[in-house]
């Protein structure tokens, strides 16, 4: 592929602007830990929403979608489309609760909701477990995508790619704090969108593809276009649709799609001006993430089935790519090598933006756990703001080094995605219920975390060797069912066999956050003078359902129009518009 001076100039300009933003925000970011990690709790919904979108548009996301489409067709995307339900639950139920909590990180929540050694252990352990272990795995998958892009499009070795991406990202992340990340995300979002839409438009017009109609009718593609899997085939509809839509979205924990909100999504809600801006940010994120972005990736993935129908074709075209990095996800980068001068520069800048926006968010988020929930809480409570910012900047560098090292050992983004889902299986329901059910305690969460991890290790590492539980290859989804069932039964037993939190802890949390009172009634009834907040939970769940229908309708309306089915597209578009009007009006009237 010929990357010209014009392309390099575009990429260079992108790097310079990103660094300038970091320098611009560095002075204010260094003034306090709260400014470094929460940007003063004064951010508007549109900036936070765009940042969420930019962060989740990681360079490994189009690779993941390509892997899914090539293996399971468009319907395979329900593996992540189902998480829209989680997202909309966060929008209308949990966004305002997080903002009311006024914690600095979502891990600080543990010592607001629970008390004693159990709460302290949860906060400390998860600060390292999520902030370091999980975070490093996620960043490694992003770095793996960068390696594949650098190898295919620029001919760079894995180490060269990681050095370039890491140095620039660490510089502006450690200098500018969250505000630097937010402003850079805003700039990178538009670069990423222009690049992905421009690439899809050009690739469809390649001589090898011919036109959109030729693409959709090609024998390699025609059988992979359905939005839903074949419901006459249990081996198709159970893993591709039923499992994600019935179990996965509420039962598993995955960064960016946590049931009840959490992680960097919670970090942005906590930095919002007020509850309405927290809701608006997450609403915009879900609309853009699920309705606006998928189709360019899907179209490029479908096109790759014509030019590179098999992995062997990718190996022939790119013989210098290491064997352990070859996979269906590589096809996305391979298709981008067909782009012309100028557009190559924009697309490369967009992919670099995708890498950097995700890495920078995870670096700031992970270091916030290390600083606020481990160093300040347990190691040096008297630490000054200056010292905390310094520790945050050092931890940013260390996290990047660890993730880059792990990336060199990974081979597939989809494999990492599945492993992370398995590790979090069965814990999601706790994150949904802990705001509304007084009986959940610290040991509920500790047991769920331990059981889900042990079960994941058993199914992913031990069972394939000893085969104590026979799982047919075409029924791999049984692992998720077993994991969710075992973990859920385990933490429920622990919950009922351990003492609840003390009333003063529960009442303090209830007064601070004011969730709907129905799940707290047993405690509140012991204190006749305590106000019982009725809340609007039924209305909020209704809005979640309407919002989900709205976004799915918008997603499928676009697909119908692309497929040339204008009647179905028009009907879906009308449903999406009607739902959008209702949801936006409801948001504007929320307190």
Automatic annotation (TrEMBL):
Keyword set, alphabetical order: Membrane, Transmembrane, Transmembrane helix
Broad class of the protein's primary localization: membrane
Entry membrane topology: Multi-pass membrane protein
PROSITE patterns: NA_SOLUT_SYMP_3
Cellular localisation: Membrane
Transmembrane region(s): 6-24, 45-66, 78-95, 127-147, 153-174, 186-204, 294-311, 331-355, 388-410, 416-436, 443-461, 481-499, 541-563, 569-587
PANTHER family, per the entry: SODIUM_GLUCOSE COTRANSPORT PROTEIN, SOLUTE CARRIER FAMILY 5
Family classification: Belongs to the sodium:solute symporter (SSF) (TC 2.A.21) family.
Name recorded for this polypeptide: Na+:solute symporter
Species of the source: Algoriphagus halophytocola
